[in-house]
Amino acid sequence: MAVVIGTNLTVSTEQELLTPPMSAEPLQTALHNANACYCVHRPPLVSVFPIVRQTQNRAISFTVPVVPSADAIRYACTHWLLGSFAASVPVTVESGIGEPPTWTSLYSGSVTLASGVYNSCDHHVILPAPSGCDRLRFTYTPPTGPFLVSSILVYPDPDPASAPIGTAAQMPSGFWPADDALLGVTSGPVHTEMLDRCWRNSIAVLRDRQQMVASWVQADTQFGGAMYATPFDNANTGDQWALVGKARVGLPYQQGTVLLRAAVLADVSSGATSKRVRLVAKPLKYTTTPPHVDLDATGHIVTGHLAATVDGTVDAGVDLEVYVRNISTQTLTLRAVVLHWCPGD
């Protein structure tokens, strides 16, 4: 016997779980399922639909704040592009850390476009642990003509040829692959650690993989070209909050108060940077002032937590509203707003 990390889960029947003998089953299946969580739990780390001008015809890049796995695992990436020409568009992905960020190239490739047709670029990257990566930058360089970056998706896809698959070492995330060797030994010991490993591994994987639940992203400062910036012509140019986006954040079956990790990347032309961006989480049914968090526009990634009040139903969630401070004497550019959620927060 050995460490077995499957690519799917096996559901034991209720009868198999009633007064089982102290042998391989059903404990072996439970251990295998807990191991399989490492491969099958794939919440999106990045899921964005960038805000881009339809006439965009030059290089553009987007910076997205992230919290990758502590285990430095492999992630799958998919980029969907729409072009007005038939040509190959170079695509690069970089990880960044620090202020100002130090960038490390993770991928350099291309997507071949056909005029008027959506085409995708699919590849893998290995992301450093959070101590070495707090953002990803996606860059697209068209040879000619307008094009649209429709969506960017990044999700866990651990390499079956890499640790911990096939090893018995504990990972930085706390995941500890279960070896079922003792279950195949006559009169082998079955102790509480084997049972504990089932739930501990599942929780370790859930807590390690942040999942993006909302995003608002436009061009960063590498090439410029952000589509929206304050002051807005159609808004009061006094010192007021201006609504720039809203979306429904689904948190099915969550109940009570859920903490969402908010990350903002915004900058101003001059003047005050404090509390320039506001995120509001409106419960679907509320009678009091909904919770909000105000974040600064320093040109660096600024994080905070937004409390979401949810009712535990399949439709549980909040209505997210994104505001920026609209002042006539200051240009404020919101580059990115993302919300990540970790089960248990």
Query: How many domain units?
Result: 3
Helix content: under 10%
Number of helical stretches of at least 4 residues: 2
The percentage of residues in β strands lies in 35-45%
Q: What is the CATH C-level name of the largest domain?
A: Mainly Beta
Secondary-structure element order, as H and E?
HEEEEEEEEHEEEEEEEE
Adjacency order of strands in the biggest sheet: 1-8-3-6
Please give the CATH architecture of the largest domain. Sandwich
Unreliably modeled segments: none
**Helix vs. strand class:** mainly beta
- CATH fold-level label of the largest domain: Jelly Rolls
Instruction: Name the overall outline.
Output: globular
Work out the radius of gyration: 23 Å
Ends apart, CA distance between termini: 37 Å
Explain this structure to me?
The chain is mainly beta and 345 residues long. It has 2 helices and 16 strands. The protein folds into 3 domains: 77 residues, no CATH class; 111 residues, Sandwich (Jelly Rolls); 114 residues, Sandwich (Jelly Rolls). It is 9% helix and 41% strand. The strands form 4 sheets. A 4-stranded antiparallel β-sheet has the order 1-8-3-6, with no helix packed on it. The protein has a 4-stranded antiparallel β-sheet with strand order 2-7-4-5, with no helix packed on it. A hairpin with an 8-residue loop joins strand 12 and strand 13. Helix 1 packs parallel to helix 2.
